[in-house]
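Quick illustration for those who missed Monday's session on complexes.
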Amino acid sequence: MSDPTRHDLLQRMIEESKRMVAFTGAGISAESGIPTYRGDDGLWNKYDPVKFANINHFFKQPDYYWNFFKEVRYPVIHRARPNKAHAALAQLEQKGKLKTVITQNIDGLQQAAGSQHVLELHGNTRRIVCLKCGQCHSMEDVYEQLDTRLPPLCPDCNGTLKPDVVFFGESLPTDVLEDAISASQSCDLFLVVGSSLVVQPAATLPVTARQHGARVVIINRDPTPLDGIAELVFHSSASEVLGCLV
Ligand code: APR
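Prediction with adenosine-5-diphosphoribose bound:
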């Protein structure tokens, strides 16, 4: 159990904040049953990201990715529900304390918890787009195809389908990244929840916030390379720390 006085300090920092931003990674969704990418039981320990999450490999061998989607990703994301940590951030937004959640996650759980202002740096796997006609399909509809057709094709034009997520080797959506940078530059409290803070350019955002005078708090089970810039660090479970706040 974390030291209650540190919870009080976090509570006070949030109360004093006028423009708070949260930055989330896979760790916030771990307690919803979605594995993280790194750490002991990380996804990338079992599946090579070069083969399963790289854009060049996706175009060379799309069935590799779609089989991974069918057998590994879809089942956990489809049944995942928001947990107490997602709910706490949504409540802080409803109370007018939290302006924006910048997320690296592609699971849509922060929006499902009720948050309205979510910047998805790496996209959202619940949206599957046709690279030919641009039509957007739900991941459930596409999943239906996978028993008979791998890789799936656009039901409207037979074009190639791709999850609306940023693969390694792709750039982040410019408008989303610009909004995230601007939110990091103008906040007075930057709360990191469940990220190893090793993937760029996302991991520069806490540094940007700090450089613009924001107080930084990190809630992450394992130490991160940016713990040194944080005023407060919890190496604990996100839902345990955030669940006490609201
Ligand atoms: N509560 C808090 N933190 C947790 C919990 C938990 N219950 N469970 C795990 N963690 C922490 C781990 O200690 C780990 O440092 O969450 C962190 C998750 O780190 P990563 O798996 O690296 O996830 P993330 O930082 O979001 O990765 C960034 O990398 O592969 C790409 O695009 C992918 O968006 C992802 C990006």
